[in-house]
């Protein structure tokens, strides 16, 4: 009797440490051992393990096993920032603390583990917002940005989606909403840096965030930033779509 060949095991590692930026423990899952590192943000109020549970990691198995990509799935603090009951000015401050955690703790960790000169940042839904926002704000850190099914102005109420700051607006909010700050980018050095990034936006034709994506795409074009906008049929705002998107765009 001839036995079937064993499936190649995908390397999977769990990490946890106390974050000084957030003053709490944060968790992470790492898939693979080498290749282009991908920082993957979870969806709205989701967690570091959800991408695995939704088979999105499985959709990238072959590339992970072959050493083409290494995926770092971080946790979120959305329930403590955008979706908390704290005053709006404190919500954005908590988000900035989360950004500091990513920049000062997660990115150095990735660079220590992976010597690639490339770094992709991505996410789905609110995770796509996180990816695009941090990528455009810190263009020397990332080489590729992929935003899937994301909303780029959290201050604008939409059907079924509220203004996450209850009408409050300040400078911190302005500089963390791509559809606000991107049209105003005029610094030549910053523009040069952003233009080097491979930027992809993906959205469904029936998604509530379609106009947000079209607005950001128009703003990027206006300031001369090359990018790609892909519009899928239907809403395309579910894990079964994201499983296909990661195969095409990451």
UniProtKB/TrEMBL annotation:
InterPro entries: AB_hydrolase_fold (IPR029058), Esterase-like (IPR000801), Mycobacterial_A85_antigen (IPR050583). Pfam families: Esterase. This is Esterase/lipase superfamily enzyme. The lineage of its organism: Bacteria, Pseudomonadati, Bacteroidota, Cytophagia, Cytophagales.
């Amino acid at each position: 009797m001839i036995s079937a060949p064993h499936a190649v095991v995908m390397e999977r590692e769990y990490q946890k440490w106390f974050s000084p930026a957030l003053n709490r423990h944060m968790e992470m899952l790492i898939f693979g051992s080498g290749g282009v590192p991908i920082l993957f943000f979870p969806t709205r109020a989701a967690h570091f393990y959800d991408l695995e549970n939704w088979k999105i990691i499985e959709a990238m198995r072959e590339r992970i096993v072959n050493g083409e990509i290494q995926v770092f799935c971080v946790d979120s603090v959305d329930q403590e920032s955008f979706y908390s009951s704290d005053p709006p000015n404190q919500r954005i401050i908590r988000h900035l603390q989360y950004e500091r955690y990513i920049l000062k703790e997660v990115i150095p960790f990735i660079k220590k583990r992976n010597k690639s000169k490339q770094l992709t940042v991505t996410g789905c839904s609110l995770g796509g917002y996180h990816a695009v926002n941090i990528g455009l704000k810190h263009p020397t850190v990332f080489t590729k940005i992929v935003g899937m099914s994301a909303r780029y102005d959290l201050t604008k109420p939409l059907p079924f989606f509220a203004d996450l700051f209850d009408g409050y607006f300040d400078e911190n909010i302005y500089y963390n909403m791509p559809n606000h700050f991107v049209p105003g980018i005029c610094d030549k050095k910053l523009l040069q840096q952003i233009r080097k990034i491979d930027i992809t936006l993906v959205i469904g034709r029936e998604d509530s965030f379609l106009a947000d994506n079209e607005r950001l795409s128009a703003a990027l074009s206006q300031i001369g930033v090359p990018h790609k906008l892909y519009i899928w049929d239907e809403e395309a705002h579910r894990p079964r779509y994201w499983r296909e998107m990661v195969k095409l765009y990451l």
